[in-house]
Every structure is written in C-alpha cells, then in structure tokens.
Amino acid sequence: MTITGSCLCGSIQYSADVDQYTSALCHCTDCQKWTGGAFTSNALVPRSSFKVTKGTPSTYDVTGNSGKINKHFFCSGCGSSLYTELEIMPDSTVIKAGGLDNGAAKLGGKIDLELYVKDRVPYLAAAEGAKQQEAM
Fold first, then answer.
1. Smallest Cα–Cα separation from 110: which of 22, 5, 40, 16?
2. Which residues contact 22 (CB under 8 A, 6 or more apart)?
3. Which residues, in sequence order, are CB contacts of 85 under 8 Å at separation 6+?
4. Right CATH number for 2-132 from 3.10.580.10, 2.170.150.70, 3.30.450.40, 1.10.260.40?
5. 94-106 pLDDT, tens per residue?
6. Which stretches make up the CENP-V/GFA domain (predicted)?
C-alpha cells in the first residue's frame, strides 16, 4: 500500500510504499515541545520506502537522551511537523500521523507501541494492547 501525507498548506508532500507500518505514540518531552501536544502519534516506516514528493522541508536537530541526533522535518511555511529521522533508528522514518491523507491519522484504529511512557501526562491512560516502553 502507499501512504501519503502533506503539511497543512500543501507545500510539502510525501509518500511511503509499505506492506504495513508500526503505529506508535511517543510521550517524550521533546515530542511534547515539538508539537505543542501531550504526545505524538506516528507511523514508523522503512526509511528506504519514504520519499518527499513535493517541496523541501526544513530541519531542526535535537540531541536525544541516547546522545544521538533526532532530525525533525517541518514546513517552514505553515509550521507543520512532518516526520523525524532518528540516528538511533537508522532504518526507519517516523511520520507524524496528523499529516497523513484520507483519515489515516487514526492509524488503523490501534496503537502497536507507546514510547517514553515515563513522561506520559497523568490524565492519559495506556493505549489498550500497545507495548509499553519506559524510554527508547
């Protein structure tokens, strides 16, 4: 299947050809700051399957708890968070689910994995059936 997405203004578009993907929530404080929300919802796809099909995203690098770089990609026009490439996960691209097209932000109705649950805000419960991971 091909999943597609874009930023809010449409200047940046992307796609990934995948058989399946891992759906994940990340509760780390960097994701909270980056999105202005309590967590990020994500589709983890093989980096080799991901491509930007329109525009050129801007980037911002953050050093993660691992000491490795987390490269955040975003639209400089509208500010939409698009995807992340983590040095600690060199074979994956972490697509921010809110930018996925055709209602795909719902991630198929299930979450496979929750990361940094130690930083999860107390008013949110664990996603039913998701593997819970304290950190990365």
1. 22
2. 43, 44, 112, 113
3. 47, 70, 71, 73, 93, 94
4. 2.170.150.70
5. 999 999 999 999 9
6. 3-124
